Amino acid sequence: MTVRNGQALGKNTSRNGRVDFGVFLAAQIIPQLTLESIFTDPSHRFKHAGDKSRGGCPWHESKSGTSFVVDRNTLQWWCAGCNVGGGPIQYLWKLTGGVGVTPRGRDFIEQLRGLAVKAGVPFPEMELTEADKEQARRLETRRAVLASAVALCERALSGTHGAAAREYLAGRGFTEPELQELRVGWYPLARFLAEYLEKAGHTPEDIKESRILFEGLVGYTTWPWHDDTGALLTIYGKWPNKAPPGGKPKTTALPNPKDAAEKDWLHTKQSPMYLDRALAAGHRDLILVEGPTDAALPQLRGDSRVVACVAAQLSGDQVETLRHRGVRSMTIALDPDKAGDNGIGSCVRQLEGAGIRAYVAPRLPNGLDPDEFILRDGIDEWKKHVANPTHGYRHLAGALIASHGVRESGDDLWLDDLIDKAVAFADKQPAEADADMLLHFWPAVAEATGATMEALAARVKPKSAAVPPSEDAAPAGAAALAVIDSPTFAATDYPLHWHVKKVLVRGQPAIVAGPKKCLKTSLLCDFAVSIGSGQPFLGVFQSEGPTRIGFFSGESGPHAIKATARLVCAARGIRLEDAGVWWCFAVPQLSRAEQLACLAEQIGKHQLQVVIIDPLYLCLLAGNPDVRSSNLYDMGPLLAAITEVCRQAGADVILCHHFIKRPADPFGVPELEDMSGAGVAEFARQWVLIGRRERYEPGTGLHKLWLNVGGSAGFSSCWSVDVDEGVLADDFSGKKWEATVEGAAAAILGKKVQAETKREEQQASRRKDDETKVLQAIDYLTAAGQPYSSTRVRDKAVLNGDKFRQAVERLVAEGLIERCDVKVPTAKGAMKPAESLKRVRRAADASSGSSGQAG
After folding, report:
1. d(Cα 16, Cα 639) in Å, to the nearest integer?
2. Which of 338, 353, 403, 751 suits 239 as a labelling partner, its CA being 20 to 30 A distant?
3. In 745-767, which positions are buried (b, 16+ CB within 10 angstroms) versus exposed (e)?
4. Separation CA 555–CA 521 (nearest Å)
5. What is the pLDDT of residue 271?
6. How far is CA 16 from CA 10, 13, 19, 106, 124, in A?
7. Each residue of 526-565: pLDDT tens digit?
8. Among 450, 442, 365, which residue's Cα sits nearest to residue 409?
9. pTM to 2 decimals?
10. Residue 261 region by backbone torsions, left for phi larger than 0, else alpha for psi between -120 and 50, else beta
């Protein structure tokens, strides 16, 4: 069983009857646990700062009381005194006196089962194979060994042998606190690392199996590489100058660990570097660079969107990780060299094929890599540089045109050859990219060649079969392309009429869309009953009915539909029998001509004026496996055919559709871009978009929704809708349908105020954390009894220059500390004057005997 991203292949916690423990632990158990539920030893007495908690160690006496460190996001821990670390399993195993760092076999499974109980997650009750147990055990073991190796590399960097590497890193713009934040180190001789790991409690067998000892990494600066969840994957190495000796590569990394058959059991580079940091910061629109320092510097200086592919292009598994984590777009900013230029095309194709929109930043000037550009011009200039990228396909079209040379006057061979190359390029692109090709690639080609979009489209080979026409379809030729002159056009009236005022006009297809379980079908029931009976939709929006309406529902079933329809009728004061709706509990297969003909027959038979089809995904592609929902060229003809069939039969069509699974803001105002699949948003001439304003609280029956309405006729509005369904009692009574509609301005303003308040609270909390770090550093240095400088305080507080300076200014203004002059020893033993910081003595301090002196 091969593991990717620290997880077994497959998206679920089991596959083919086998448990994928990496996914189970990282995705289901860890998010449900807290620091307090795992790290229970009384010696900890944690102090919290940022994402880290520091405290005492259960296994040795920590003089500082801060040697035991836990990352509260991942629950990974490390003790500098014991030289050991790991995750919750290693902690609990060691706390209960287990032998070794990581339990084995049944012991490991029982530890995992115990964590599942703590998290309230059902444990997979199935017979576990020895392979399952062994895979989970060695994955956790390798992570623990990696954690120990990273710690030694950190120590080696700060030691005598790491002096040249420190000088190199300082020249690359990294401060000591920044290197500590990223846990950058220097790889020592492998035998020293082996001795260190054994002293930390790792067995020789575990060390060998983890493939941590690698002579090819000796002398390199080390950069820990984590997966998308923050768990250690591998160690990346970068030689500490531009010219490695003896033909060594500039960069290298630990090899993949192999099983007894010498097959990789773990792929260690399956996630872009620092993706975990970008996701933790809430980003889904990222920036891609090549190397670790290219990503590390902006990450540290204020652009947490930046990740590194650690190559000139993404790997297929990295793209899959990005897709799986819901990344929406990627702006590519690779190194300005030949390898980077070539890698852009590969990245664009891979990202677009995965449904991730690809953009390309302008080429960096003067051959500068991203980190060099930031060092020269600053992080703000970097943000400006990547702020207005070109779409990936427009960039590639430009590169194709530029490589073709300049067209001489009358050179039609140049023209046809360029179009042929563009067509050949388009044929190689995934069908999922058709929409972006249409918007970005082909317009650039059309502008360069002077060809029309229609002429270019005629040259492109279709990627899917067209929808077969129905027998009574409009004839081809002149009759289907009726042309009128301008006087006739000017004299002809094209009036608009409402079905429902401010919501839906007649004569145009409509889309009602929203995420799952947000009352789409229930609201459509209200809509159908309201316009069928001539009552106001939601009791507010006046319909122009009665209008004969057909409701085709293939998802909820007759019982649920009838129950909702009765509640709506009761709210309108009418009987269900008088609703004016024709009901059907099946949906037609809209890609099949005979099914379209059947729909047209029902419309004509019952003289329906409006048809609701719910949901679109059940009927659009059924019976036609050659058509893909991701292909704009497949979807366009299908949706046009549905509209035309209904129009000719005398009815307007309303299609109910779903949003993508992970919209950018699940509680923001819904937008057309949130709809899943290709072509639906383009097809919609009018729309009603539904979304939740707040998370639904089970047991309340109260749904707080958005209603975003608009159409190409020029109307648009946004509303906040509260629907109270009541709560079902034991005798099945208690349900109701009460809707309250208000303009959305107040709700939108409220969300903005709430977001701004939260942002201000977070900023205040971060400022308070910085001030606490400064005060703790002053107290620590004061207690040591030796004179110290402000620089020593900054280093002890582990704050960068700006944060430290701002924290000091606030503390001075608050009267908590003051600046003073001291003399501190130099490296040669002499004393030199320096600025220091000390606590301000207060009356209470003086009475208790506290000195509050800097030294």
Report:
1. 38
2. 338
3. eebbeebeeeeeeeeeeeeeeee
4. 9
5. 92
6. 10, 10, 9, 22, 13
7. 999 998 998 999 988 888 878 899 999 888 788 889 999 9
8. 450
9. 0.50
10. alpha
